[in-house]
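Materials and Methods. Structural model of TMM80 protein. The 135-residue sequence of TMM80 protein from Pluvianellus socialis was retrieved and submitted for structure prediction as follows.
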Amino acid sequence: NNSYQLSSVPLQILFYVNGIYYIFYFLATLGMIVYKSEVFSYPDDFLAPDLASLFIMAVLEVLRLYLGSKGNLTEEEAPLGLSLVLTVGSVILSVYFLVWQTYVLKADVIINAVLLFIYGLESALKVVAIAAFVS
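The predicted structure was written out as tokens:
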């Protein structure tokens, strides 16, 4: 095996930042869903899907960051590739909270825009890292 390290330090830092930011994102989104359900006439049949989407996203996020981090540190393209695939799901859920959830507040727009920016940056770095591991 080659002696130099292929794993991406910027990607690893981004995974860490993403993990910290997602905790904030999750709590903020959960708080806003609760706030909206109190302040607005939130139809009951819309509250459950919004909450379910957030919890599915949280599970996806943990899995995505774990696989990405593991793939990067062990220099294996498979977990990193799987993490990249899971990012698609996270992006769709983030867009859901940005556009399609029952009530979209300005704060929703801001925190989702930041998350999507992180996903974009992370995905680009993942592709570069996968290319380095494969070559």
